[in-house]
Amino acid sequence: MSGSSLDGLDIVYCKFTKTENWSFEILSETIANMSCWETRLQNARNLEAEKLELLDEAFGGFVGAEIQAFISKNEITKLDIVASHGHTIYHFPEKRVTKQIGLGSKIFEQVKVPVLTNLRQKDMDKGGQGAPIVPIGDLFLFADFKYCLNIGGIANISIKAKDSIVAFDICSANQVLNYFAFLKGKKYDDGGKFARSGKLNQVLFEELNTLSFYEKAYPKSLDNAFTNDVLAIIKKHDLSIEDKLNTYCQHIAFEIAHAINTKELSQEQILITGGGAFNVFLVECISNYVKKLNIEVVIPNAEIVNNKEALVMAFMGVLYLRNENNCLASVTGASSDTKSGEYID
Fold first, then answer.
1. How far, rounded to the nearest angstrom, does the alpha carbon of residue 336 sit from its chain's CA centroid?
2. Is 154 exposed, middle or buried (0-12, 13-18, 19+ CB in 10 A)?
3. Among 7, 277, 286, 298, which lies 20 to 30 A Cα-Cα from 48?
4. Of residues 102, 90, 22, the one with CA closest to residue 60
5. What does the alpha-carbon distance between residue 116 and residue 318 come to, in Å, rounded to a whole number?
6. What are the extents of the domains in the chain?
7. Per-position b or e across 27-48, b if 16+ CB within 10 A of its CB
8. How far is CA 181 from CA 74, 100, 146, 208, 236, in A?
9. Contact, 99 vs 88, CB < 8 A?
10. Rounded to whole angstroms, how far apart are CA atoms 50 and 29?
11. What angle do CA 160, 164, 170 make, to 5 degrees?
């Protein structure tokens, strides 16, 4: 899995067990360096179709080589399937179009075991958003948590009721925070230290909170281009980078609480994963907002924080092998649940 933050290729080797409920083990893990791909991937949405196809093949070769190196290093001999999300170039659910590069046939050439890719398109063919797809894992692998929040380049949330689950994208997250950290000479705001040293700007905060996406009913999902709209708003304000980071952290937290908007009185927990879980200031902001809703923040161990999305991609592969649906209509708005993915062997 390569997330929209472009901070590396997440690779995990997992074992799943089904008794009454599902359980899992992460047997080994790594984050492959993608720095040589950052510029190419950032500019890929502007490529002509033929050049994008070539990039799809090249990136598939890179992913396959990294997976094979991981297999060799960890002496993995028993492997049922490789499930690869790839890297999202564009995502337009209203047009039923999405593109994740990392061509499955190129991965298969390297690993020589079945490969599952293109995990979103079949759901979109049924009228769904094709996103989020992680909630299938939230439902079965993290069943104890009513709320599962992932803070990556984009923040998204799963919310469970007794017998159903809904999920949707909330707002741009690390894509914005990392942009301004880069202007301070850092890849990210370590622990949220820059943001903590800044101050909330109420005018910018209120302007960000009026973006129309936030009032849309779910199912809903965001294309990475939404971040450009957000950045355009922030750049209009003559503020220090620290103040911009502080205000945007507060905005993320506000929108998370707004998305939950529960009137239940029972104590619940929200599980936070993704790179944003390491941003201490951001997590404090979120905690301050959601505790008003009687919700407690839980940060799991680093293994889960770093690998939850890749873990769920693997789980989608397992469900596919079992001929079971791995993409949920209650989340995406599709006409029915889907056994999603393109299988190559």
1. 23
2. buried
3. 7
4. 102
5. 10
6. 9-129+335-344, 135-303
7. eebbebebeebeeebeebeeee
8. 35, 27, 32, 19, 18
9. yes
10. 34
11. 50
Residue type, 325: N
Mean pLDDT, each 10-residue run in order, the chain (345 residues): 82 97 97 92 93 97 98 96 95 89 97 97 94 94 95 94 87 97 96 98 98 93 92 98 98 96 81 96 98 95 95 98 96 96 97
| Contact of 269 with 146, CB cutoff 8 Å | yes
Q: Are 171 and 154 in contact (CB under 8 A)?
A: yes
Side-chain-side CA neighbours of 111 within 13 Å: the count stands at 33
CATH hierarchy code of domain 9-129+335-344: 3.30.420.40
Find the helix or strand (DSSP H, E) in which 89 lies: strand 87-92
Place of tokens 């094709």: 130
Tell me if residue 281 falls in helix, strand or coil. Answer: helix
Looking at CATH, the fold of the domain delimited by 135-303 is given as Nucleotidyltransferase; domain 5 (3.30.420)
Order across the sheet with 342-344: list the strands. 82-83, 115-117, 342-344
